[in-house]
Design brief:
The complex is a heterodimer of chains A (483) and B (736). In chain A, β3 and β4 form a beta hairpin. In chain A, the strands form seven sheets. In chain A, strands 7, 8, 10, 12, 22 and 25 form a six-stranded mixed β-sheet that branches. Chain A has a five-stranded antiparallel β-sheet with strand order 16-19-14-13-24, with no helix packed on it. In chain A, 14% of the residues lie in helices and 35% in strands. Chain A is α+β, with helices and mostly antiparallel strands. Chain A has eight helices and 27 strands. Chain A folds into three domains: 136 residues, Beta-Lactamase (2-Layer Sandwich), CATH 3.30.450.60; 169 residues, Sandwich (Immunoglobulin-like), CATH 2.60.40.1170; 126 residues, Mu homology domain, subdomain B (Immunoglobulin-like), CATH 2.60.40.1170. The longest helix of chain A is centred in the N-terminal third of the chain and has 19 residues. Chain B has 736 residues and is mainly α. Chain B has a domain of 128 residues. In chain B, α6 runs antiparallel to α7 and α10 runs parallel beside α12. Chain B is elongated. Chain B: One of its GO terms (biological process) is vesicle-mediated transport. Chain B: Belongs to the adaptor complexes large subunit family. Chain B: Keywords: Membrane, Protein transport, Transport.
């Protein structure tokens, strides 16, 4: 429950505010810039987005997560409405923003926050609403995320699996912690109110149903679903069934704690020459099967903020210096399994520092040891990041076994044609590793970042499998239009 | 005075009926206005624009543009716009939703400034509430109920009654919140009417969104009223859970919050309900997840079967960990709540210490809270891993964080006895870096280690003495001085070292002066020949040249003691010190119980009892029922076994390094801590003497303990004492 919501510029000046309860003087917001500058740790109930602060005030012991998420939702919805949410977009859209705020929150309680639904009755081009707008049924319906009567001539579903790997490697190369964060994203362009069912190689599901599988099953430590998924059903028999929202959304995210080998391993040796020059030697090795290839590999190595005159040498790909992110970026279009590539980089350092100051951390924070000079803030111990995509391959081994679509209501069924495309997305992860702080000139870096990719799936086009089925669930007859 | 004119302006208009007003203005040629400057000019200009267009303006385009300008002015706090009130009321009847919305917005904004004009809008709103379009009905109702003007409130009541039974759920939902708004405006009027009963009746609505809204409204009213009791029996609770899946994410949050008012009468009920809401833990909305965690934790209080409890604990762990992958704000909230949950149900996160290892790009407030959790979860098994991690933190760039990491290492030496050697080695390794703030921080914690393990690690004194020059913070200086005094007999040149410190006696803060005084006395007692010159000098300074009563009194006391009976002085000053422990800060059971009923709320961010943050909050307590399991808050074993003086977690008396400011409700402890530790064992001696005399000394400046029967468990939740102000600079984190 929030008493009031504010949009403020970076100086803390209010651009727009909405008072929902009137129990707090609106002048209370004047304290905000003061708090901001003084109390760095008490960041509460506000979020920053572009050049705006979104702030909620409350007088009660409110559910904090609810308000924070609501502020994020505002960002999401406004971004959909105005393309980008920034100070200017607030100024240009006062009226519609008030309308939205009125609809999204009542008496401090979040209400409808689905932008697709809001767009049905709150629009900027009100002339479109010659007939007076009515509240969409979805506003109060059990299916609050999808409108009725959606029609597409071409019905399509796209499915992406995007995974990133978080590795924490100790100084001696042991993996302290490895965590895979994955998400299944969908783009759904389907007519009517389709019922979808998604099958994964979920170990718990196989166990509960007593089914066996040829392939590997994975054990997800935690799963989070979009609100469209029937959670009780998942709890009961691990079936993922849902009526999807229209368009793009994240169906689920999951987390696994499994020991995995980084698919691309990077070793980095840093050599500093009397503080005026710094040299990096990188070795990257692809630790996956020879028949696979990683595409668009990017290895991002943090370097001191003030480095200049870069020189690079490599036997593959291209290297460039990205001063805006204080890093050098090594790009390799295709990286075959089992291959190993080398790269050397040399950069000048304008300000002379003693060698022993370069102990600050493995791959970043060279600017000065222990915190004094040179590497304030973001320079600290940044890890090397590796980004890449490998088609048909996920780190976790998750597979989409099937996606079944049924349209419960009659006639539209005939029109429903399903095409599912797979698309791939790469992702990066960052990890950091504790490396003892040696006052040595040479640091061996075992710092990695991994990311993985996706392994999408199978689709049915009118009952026919377009792509290879990983392990199709054929015990059920294809139904309805897909038969 | 532009504003004064503006005000006069509006008063004048208010007396003229709006219709005449607008006509009148419509005939004034614009040229008359253009030379006018200032607010009146602008108001007149906008008024003219609003009323131009006439019949040709079929789509009200001109009006819309004028209204948009008015809204923009209003947004930029141009309160002169209030002068346009009558014109706006005139526009309200235009059958166009966009115009209506803008007029209503204006009305909500300015009604309280001009109640006399605003009441003219009532008939319009009443009329709109009979509109065939539910959107218009709801809009009018929502607008009307936002206005805190008596006429509006009174006019709303009969309409709400009617609209609570509107055929459209969207209107019923709006009406449900409306009752809560009316209650906010006029408590007594609502209590006298049957509105609350009617709202209650809405709980039987067949639309889940309406039910959730009614619950939110009822909870809102309940929160503010002692007269109202919210009773939810198992049947109701069960129905609420049944509609959960059909509610929006926010609706689910409201229902889950309302479930906190259900008091299970049987263990079976509680277990079943917990089981049924557990699927919500997989919701992508973190608010739903955290609220669900709150309810499950609550229901666990009414479950007797340990197997069920541990099964539920296992379910809570993964979602909590997953929250750590969210944005920093949610992450921080989750971490603060993890601190709580860990105290109440240690099983939940028992094996997850690695998930709290900091990431290089975590914001500092996240890192600090993670550090606290790492400290809490550290044990003999994982200590090596933890120390490796802490060593990493101690070389970070953020000074504040580094200090806390160093302090944590020292505290771990005290907390985990078998690992003390390893902790100390790591500290020495860090001291060798010669970075001043690390050295100072290490000095402070090593002093505590000496107290905990007397006669074990004195060999490192030599190393400490190498870094004397880098000490410039009072706390570190005081710690070093304590070490010199305590081990005066073993440090070859202790008199010379002390003399160096004494050189600047007059300029030192009182904390260091006290330490110097005591150390000098100790030196004298242990090595009379070396101390005999220093003691009279220091006693003289401390009695004659100071304004500080503490320092003076203590000096007199020593003086008298030394001159009366040197043997007694020795026994007292060099007496055996009570041991210390480093158990982490824990909330007292009552606070912990209350906090656990508020998981995910703002109070958990501060980790303070709700009433201290929100004075008007309704207190929550576990309601008694046959199923209620008497709470056994897991107490740290060390706290029980050697219930002795414990240091606050990492920040006892800690200057900048005060570890967890938010848990520090007991500033008196801090103040004491500072002094107590700085001043040394003589103080401890006094406090134990006083204890012997049965003096319960809450917040005594010497003892720094909460006066628990047998020991010195420093309880941060001890009643706040007057010594709050004595805490020198160690609460700067506390600002809220």
């Amino acid at each position: 429950m929030a008493s009031a919501v504010f949009f403020l510029d970076l100086k803390g000046k209010t651009s727009l505010a909405r008072n929902y309860r009137g129990d707090i003087p609106m002048s209370a917001v004047e304290m905000f810039p003061v708090l901001l500058s003084e109390a760095e740790e008490e960041f509460y109930l506000y979020i920053r987005h572009n050049n705006l602060y979104l702030l909620a005030l409350t007088k009660r012991n409110t559910n904090a997560a609810e308000i924070l998420l609501f502020l994020h939702k505002i960002v999401e919805v406004f971004t959909e409405y105005f393309k980008a949410l920034e100070e200017e977009s607030i100024r240009d859209n006062f009226v519609i923003i008030y309308e939205l705020l009125d609809e999204m929150m009542d008496f401090g309680y979040p209400q409808t926050t689905e932008s697709k639904i809001l767009q049905e009755y709150i629009t900027q081009e009100s002339h479109k609403l010659e007939i007076q707008a009515r509240p969409p049924i979805a506003v109060t319906n059990a299916v609050s995320w999808r409108s009725e009567g959606i029609r597409y001539r071409k019905n399509e579903v796209f499915l992406d699996v995007i995974e990133s790997l978080n590795l924490l490697v100790s100084a001696n190369g042991n993996v302290l912690r490895s965590e895979i964060l994955g998400a299944i994203k969908m783009k759904c362009y389907l007519s009517g109110m389709p019922e979808l069912r998604l099958g994964l190689n979920d170990k718990v599901m196989f166990e509960t149903t007593g089914r066996t599988t040829r392939g590997k099953a994975i054990e997800m430590e935690d799963v989070k679903f979009h609100q469209c998924v029937r959670l009780s059903r998942f709890e009961n028999d691990r079936t993922i069934s849902f009526i999807p929202p229209d368009g793009e959304f994240e169906l689920m995210s999951y987390r696994l704690n499994t020991q995995v080998k980084p698919l691309i391993w990077v070793e980095c040796v840093v050599e500093s020459h009397s503080g005026s020059r710094i040299e990096y030697m990188l070795k990257a090795r692809a630790q996956f099967k020879r028949r696979s290839t990683a595409n668009n590999v990017e290895i991002i190595v943090p370097v001191p903020d003030d480095a200049d005159t870069p020189r690079f040498r490599t036997n593959v790909g291209s290297v460039h210096y990205a001063p805006e992110q204080s890093a050098i970026v090594w790009k390799i279009k295709q990286f075959g399994g089992g291959k190993e590539f080398l790269m050397r980089a040399e950069l000048g350092l304008p300000s002379v520092r003693g060698d022993d100051e370069h102990g600050g951390g493995m791959t970043g924070g060279f600017g000065g040891s222990m915190g004094g000079i040179g590497a304030p803030g973001k320079g600290a111990k940044r890890p090397i990041q590796v980004k890449f995509e490998i088609p048909y391959f996920t780190t976790s081994g998750i597979q989409v076994r099937y996606l079944k679509i049924t349209e419960p209501k009659g006639p539209q069924n005939d029109l429903l044609r399903l095409k599912v495309y797979m698309s791939e997305g790469g992702h990066d992860i960052e990890k950091r590793s504790p490396v003892p702080n040696k006052n040595a000139v040479v640091l061996k870096v075992t710092e990695h970042l991994y990311a993985l990719l996706d392994r999408p799936v199978i689709l049915f086009v009118v009952g026919q499998v377009v792509h290879q089925v990983v392990s199709a669930d054929l015990d059920e007859e294809p139904t309805g239009a897909f038969a | 005075m532009a504003s004064a004119q503006g005000g006069g302006d509006s008063k004048l208009f208010a007396r003229i009926p709006s219709a005449i007003m607008s006509m009148f203005l419509a005939y004034i040629p614009p040229s008359v206005h253009s030379p006018m400057r200032g607010p009146q000019g602008k108001v007149a200009e906008l008024r003219f624009e609003l009323n131009s267009g006439g019949k040709k303006d079929k789509h009200y385009t001109t009006k819309k543009i004028a209204l948009k300008k008015i809204v923009a002015n209003m947004t930029m706090s141009n309160n002169d716009m209030v002068a346009l009130f009558p014109d706006i009321v005139g526009c309200m009847t235009i059958p166009n939703l966009e115009i209506k919305k803008m007029c209503f917005l204006f009305l909500v904004n300015y009604a309280r400034m001009r109640p006399d004009v605003s009441v003219k809008a009532i008939p319009v709103l009443q009329h709109d509430m009979e509109d065939p379009n539910p959107l218009v009905r709801a809009l009018a109702l929502r607008t009307m109920s936002y206005i805190h003007v008596r006429e509006f409130v009174e006019a709303t009541v009969p309409i709400v009654k009617h609209l609570l039974r509107d055929p459209d759920p969207y209107v019923r939902k709006t009406a449900a919140y409306c009752v809560a708004k009316l209650y906010d405006h006029d408590k007594h009027m609502v209590e006298k009417s049957d509105l609350i009963d009617r709202l209650n009746g809405l709980l039987r609505d067949d639309n889940p969104t309406v039910v959730a809204s009614a619950l939110a409204g009822l909870m809102d009213i309940w929160e503010r009223s002692d007269a109202i009791k919210l009773t939810i029996d198992y049947g109701n609770a069960s129905k609420m859970v049944a509609i959960l899946p059909d509610c929006s994410e926010w609706g689910q949050t409201y229902i889950l919050e309302a479930l906190m008012s259900y008091v299970p009468q049987e263990c079976g009920e509680a277990a079943l309900l917990a089981e049924r809401i557990a699927p919500r833990l997989s919701h992508s909305n973190s608010a739903v997840v955290l609220t669900c965690i709150r309810v499950v934790l609550y229901l666990m209080n009414y479950i007797s079967d340990q197997k069920q409890i541990s099964a539920l604990c296992r379910k809570l762990s993964p979602p909590l960990v997953t929250l750590l992958a969210k944005g920093p704000e949610v992450q921080y909230l989750a971490l603060r709540n993890a601190l709580l949950i860990l105290q109440r149900r240690p099983d939940v996160l028992r094996n997850d210490i690695r998930v709290f290892f900091c990431k290089y790009n975590d914001p500092i407030y996240v890192k600090v809270t993670k550090l606290e959790l790492i400290f809490m979860l550290a044990n003999e098994k994982n200590i090596d891993e933890v120390l490796t991690e802490l060593r990493e933190y101690a070389t970070e760039i953020d000074v504040h964080f580094v200090r806390k990491a160093v302090r944590a290492i020292g505290k771990l030496a005290i907390k985990i006895e078998p690992a003390s050697r390893r902790c100390i080695n790591l500290l020495l390794e860090l001291v060798a870096t010669k970075v001043t703030y690390i050295v100072q921080e290490a000095t402070v914690v090593i002093r505590n280690i000496f107290r905990k393990y007397p006669n074990q690690y004195e060999s490192i004194i030599g190393t400490l003495c190498e870094h004397l020059d880098s000490l410039d913070e009072p706390e570190a200086k005081a710690a070093m001085v304590w070490v010199i005094g305590q081990y005066a007999s073993r440090i070859e040149n202790s008199d010379a070292l002390l003399e160096d410190f004494l050189f600047s006696f007059a300029e030192e803060p009182v904390e260091v002066q006290l330490a110097l005084l005591t150390a000098t006395v100790k030196l004298f007692i242990q090595r009379p020949t070396k101390g005999q010159e220093l003691v009279p000098k220091v006693l003289k300074w401390a009695t004659e040249e100071t304004d500080n009563p503490d320092l003076r009194d203590r000096a007199y006391m020593y003086w008298r003691l030394l001159s009366t009976d040197i043997e007694a002085a020795k026994r007292i000053v060099m007496g055996e010190k009570p041991a210390i422990t480093a158990e982490s800060e824990r909330l007292d059971p009552a606070t912990l119980e209350e906090m656990c009923l508020n998981v995910g709320t703002l109070a958990t961010v501060y980790l303070k009892p709700v009433q201290t943050v929100f004075r008007n909050a309704r207190p929550r307590r576990l309601q008694d029922s046959p199923a209620l399991q008497r709470q056994e808050v897991p107490a740290p074993s060390s706290l029980r076994s050697d219930a002795n003086k414990s240091l606050s977690q990492l920040g006892m008396g800690g200057q900048a390094a005060d570890f967890d400011p938010r848990t520090d409700r007991g500033q008196p402890r801090d103040g004491n801590g500072n002094l107590a530790q700085a001043v040394s064992d003589a103080d401890a001696y006094f406090s134990s003497q006083m204890r012997g005399m049965q003096i319960q000394e809450h917040g005594d400046s010497f003892g720094g303990n909460a006066g628990e029967g047998q020991g010195y468990v420093v309880n941060q939740y001890a009643p706040q004492g007057v010594y709050q102000t004595a805490a020198v600079g160690n609460n700067q984190d506390l600002l809220l």
